[in-house]
Amino acid sequence: MERFQTLHSPAVPLPLENIDTDQIIPARFLKATTREGFGDNLFRDWRYNPDNSPKPEFALNNPRYSGQVLVAGKNFGCGSSREHAAWALYDYGFRVVISSYFADIFRGNALNTGLLPLQVSDETLGRLLAAIHENPALELVVDLPSQTLAVPAWGETFSFAIDPYKKECLINGYDDIDFLVNQKPAIEAFEKQRAWVW
Amino acid sequence: MPRTLFDKIWDAHVVRSIEGGQDVLYIDRHLIHEVTSPQAFDELAARDLGLFRPSQIIATADHNVPTLNQHLPIEEPLSRSQVDKLTENCQKYGIELYGLGHQRQGIVHVIGPELGLTQPGLTMVCGDSHTSTHGAFGAVAFGIGTSQVAQVMASQCLLLSRPKRMRISVEGELRPGVTAKDIILYIISQLGTGGATGHFVEYAGSAIRALSMEGRMTICNMSIEMGARGGLIAPDATTFAYVQGRPFAPQGEAWDAALGYWQTLYTEEGATFDTEYTYQAADIAPMITYGTNPGMGIPITGHVPSEVPTTEAESFDKSLKYMGLQRGESLLGKQIDYVFIGSCTNSRIEDLRTVAAYVQGKRKAGHVEAIIVPGSKQVEQQAIAEGIDKVLAAAGFELREPGCSACLAMNEDKIPAGKYCVATSNRNFEGRQGPGSRTLLASPLVAAITAVQGRIVDITEYLN
Question: How many CB atoms lie within 10 A of CB B266?
């Protein structure tokens, strides 16, 4: 996993609520057996017409918007547990998703992919979406070590929460497998007293 | 201190807790399928790691498989390659595979319970969000991503924060025509699609206890549709009777020991929940969804809401536009093009019996295409043994071979753009059943009546 520390970037707005992982990456694109290449089909049916021509009104096709940060409506990533959704966002080039609420499985998958799910209040989210709409070049500064999101143009900084262990993993590029494999002596000892499996 | 059912099971599986509040949680059973496992196997191979406990992994091919001519090689090359990859990996690592052609093949959340692999008190995971289904037996079961699939393969454990607890009680008797599916669609319509995020839900109350295991599985299955990490129901005599005698159920002395333990699995008096809701069964009507998330449900005789909060208006109107519906509209009389009966939510023998009992001696409407996809080979065989296949055929329903099918349209089973499908599955997301498809979620009984009538009706006027 790649390390994440600080990011300066404009953002792409997607002001819709309850964006489910079927929209992020439709099931028919889940047939690959590797992790790469899902970015081409990110938001496929919102991004392209059935004849594969781009839908100009969709944010990812709008030349006004660019950047490594996606700002989306609340309850982002609900539905299917497919980690391919996080891979698709990452493969496309996003490194941070800002929303006022994330679905649990998506949040975990994003952290395991190196994509930072950054939760802000409903009010801050509304202000961000409106401001990006007004000024697509609005720069956001995400700093993981200090757990802050800064909007220099506003002179404001917001703090965000993240599990301390996952924060360390992301900063250092570690994942859970290394940690868990190192727990084997404790796991084997635990198995010996597991009495409920018949 | 009195503990909840969930906490009893979770506590029993904590190998150790680490600083910052995460637990190393031991996983008893790991179910895998072809779509979310290949990258996990590759991850282990890339790190030169073996599988820690391959005997605790059970595999099946379900998401991608055709539902016609399963005895022939899969035509679609990408699907075939994914299914072949699963077979290859299972052979390489010594994992029990119930693949295509196996008499125990089926949807992962259907075969676990029917084989007796799903038991009270276990922790179970799968790279699939509907793993919560197994919670119907009083297990802590939940969906995980592929990175976590690799973690469980490597260590039989996951690193997790303990979720909050929620209890949802449904009390009293259900009205005629109201089933488990209506209960859960009702609950989700009340809480919304993110209403239980961060929580593990215990379903309780007399209406839940009165349900069969199939009904309980339908309820727990859809926990994720309100954002819950999982859902579970305390095991009781109904649970034990279902498990007893199944291929992987404990036998003899082991059964007695298991039963003794399972009977301790309930929420103690005075245990506290972070959130509690209580509903009256009598308030629940046959339900249907009108929108593009499972929280957008109404009684079948109801109206699409006219008013929504301003902040939600854009998403709401986008959803109605996709569905070709208007604010304030009634769905009664709406013509339907397809009926899909299947998925890990409603493809069990009880669901097929419900449909067969209704359509016996009737015929589907001429313009409706009605497809029934059994959850497993065992369900299919049972349906044939009971003569259900003949009843369905006489009514013009097509009985297919097992798989996830048109629930997520990864195989050929797709609903064409713009067409309306009443489906017994779990998600009505845009494009879920194929690009442009319009899904209305409902119970198997509502689906059967809709197929016969060809349009949405007040089903309580059409009950046998």
Answer: 18
Q: What CATH number does the domain located at B5-276 have?
A: 3.30.499.10
Instruction: Please say whether the beta carbons of A60 and A33 come within 8 A.
Output: no
Q: How far is B135 from chain A (nearest CA, A)?
A: 16
- Whether ipTM > 0.90 holds is yes
Q: What is the pLDDT of residues B32-88, one digit of tens each?
A: 999 999 999 999 999 999 999 999 999 999 999 999 999 999 999 999 999 999 999
Identify the three-state secondary structure at position B144. coil
B224: helix, strand or coil: helix
Closest Cβ–Cβ partner in A22, A23, A183 for B24: A183
User: How many Cα neighbours within 13 Å face the side chain of B334?
Assistant: 28
Window 130-189 of B: residues touching A by CB (8 A cutoff) are 143-148, 150-151, 154-159, 161, 163
Interface A:B, Cβ pairs < 8 A:
199
Judged against a pLDDT cut of 70, whether residue A198 lies above it is answered with no
Q: Do A45 and B148 touch (CB under 8 A)?
A: no
Task: Estimate the share of chain B in helix, then strand, then coil, as percent rounded to the nearest 5.
Answer: 35, 20, 45
Residues of A in contact with B20 (CB under 8 A): 163-165
**What whole-number distance in Å separates Cα of residue B30 and Cα of residue B126?**
6
**Tokens matching residue B370:** 């009605």
What pLDDT, on a 0 to 100 scale, did the predictor assign at position B115? 97
CATH of B287-461, one of 3.30.2130.10, 3.30.499.10, 2.60.120.260, 3.10.290.10: 3.30.499.10
Specify whether the CB–CB gap between B415 and B421 falls below 8 A: yes
CATH number of this structure's domain A7-138: 3.20.19.10
Task: Show residues of chain B in contact with A51, CB under 8 Å.
Answer: none
The pLDDT of residue B93 is 97
DSSP SS3 for A112: helix
Domain boundary assignment for chain B: 5-276, 287-461
Best probe of the A interface among B76, B86, B315, by most A CBs < 10 A, is B315
Q: Please indicate whether, in this complex, the C-beta atoms of B64 and A16 are within 8 angstroms of each other.
A: no
User: Is the dihedral angle over the CA atoms B300, B339, A78, A104 positive or is it negative?
Assistant: positive
Residue list, annotated binding site of B for [4Fe-4S] cluster:
344, 404, 407
Q: Is the pLDDT of residue A74 over 70?
A: yes
CA B444 to chain centre: 13
